[in-house]
Amino acid sequence: MAAAGHYDLVVAGAGAAGMTAAAVAASQGMRVLLVEKTALVGGTTAWSGGMVWVPANRQMLAAGMADSLDAARRYLAATVASESGAAMREAFLTHAAEAIDYLARHTPVQLRPVAVYPDYYPDRPGATLGGRVLEPCPFDARALGPRFALLRPPLPEFTLFGGMMVSRPDIAHFRRAWRSARSAWRVATLLARHAGERLTAPRGTSLYLGNALAGRLLLALTVLGVELRLGTRLAALRHTGTRITGILLRDAAGAETELTCRGVVLATGGFSHDAALRARTLPEAAGMVSAAAPGNAGEGIGLGLDAGGALGTANASGAFWVPVSRFRRADGSDGVFPHTVTDRAKPGLIAVDAAGERFVNEAVSYHEFVLAMLRHGLGADRPAHLICDRRFLWTYGLGRVRPFSLRLREHLASRYLHAAPSLGALATALGIDAAGLTATVAAHNADARAGVDRRFGRGSDAYQRHLGDADHRPNPCLAPIETPPFYAVAVYPADLGTATGLVTDAQARVLGADGVPIAGLYACGNDMNSVMNGAYPGPGITLGPALTFGYLAARDAARGA
After folding, report:
1. What angle do CA 415, 417, 418 make, to 5 degrees?
2. Which CATH architecture has domain 320-495?
3. Where are the domains of the chain?
């Protein structure tokens, strides 16, 4: 075991929260070490949509979109179930825009407002229809040079043609390429650009969404001189009295290194893949399925608890939920497809239980969809099924089956996708009630023709309509299911990340059981207990606090250095 120097700050975890803390600390003149136990940086952020929820941000206000912190306070009061954590939410609201502005001035992290993207409960007091959510500006990964190889790629199911990412606006052009000359030209231009990028890179270098955010943060680490160690775990914290003064690192080969430091930031991504913490805090019916990055296994939370920290206990939910379909890739790896925004709200699809009956408004947020599954007794052993017809599958795709797919053989052979010439035959193949499914589709079709979902009110608010098909009338979320063959995919509850974490104060300092900060120890990202108490009010309510409290932790550590 070798002694290897001193750092002002050591950060564990190279997701958005950890990279933000490391970059901000380095910009303040601190000597920073960032350790990441996997071989890649980016964590779940690199797979995500990259949205960052920041009320009353400067960018939206400059673009003429109205918002205020008071409106955001009213909205959170209407969507977060408990008063617990009110001080943390106030710290987030007060400092989120400040954090984004700091990153814009001192790092390559540049965000822009999404003009139209409603909060998830748009009819509640204080909600907005756009601007509150920021997205990363597109990023040319060639700026990373050799370090591009260190960036976790996006999920292959969300790319085209060997790693080509597509921006949100360009998705519409791909869907209209067959019937619009303008869209066809745009798609041809994108394909030509991608072909040029592949001449010198293993995948496309035009990055969007969460991959662009992770790439920009990695560039920030590079420019600011943050030392990076991959394949390295933070194995233990060292104390002098009640203060954290050092760490023990362990690399993939088992070699250990002792370091001294003034502070440690825990940002290892929560406990999505830790069976013991899941059993302790999440519903048993949810099982072990997760859409989070594989490195998120609770080490940071465990170290915080060992140091005297405590877990949050007042959360409405212990995780942020998403329905996923499950499959095995050609290379033998297991995959999950998060059904966030691409299919559930589109017209011509329903979700049913084993009785063949609908149990939820399919267009609600992914978090609310899974909560409905769990309330209804569905779970890891009792999936729901998404049902559609040939027209829907061709137009919108279903899960990992992309729109305009001419070859379905692989998906059918693996039984990821089920097909049948009639609804009764489809129900039999799925093991659900045929009469129930037939009656459910008949009722749905009658409502779809009228444009009103009498059972659940699908398409009745701005968020649902935003995710529907604006070109479809009269209701962008409703269309009949009537063109055989009929198709189905099974969906299961999974987490996008965990909400229960270490209790901290407004500077992201980990609190002991006595409520006193543990000197030199911080937590942010999903290692910190959710400032939303496990509620999911809008797009980016995990990344918004991740960047904000990463920033606050670094600023506090710099003041004490």
Report:
1. 85
2. Alpha-Beta Complex (3.90)
3. 160-202, 320-495
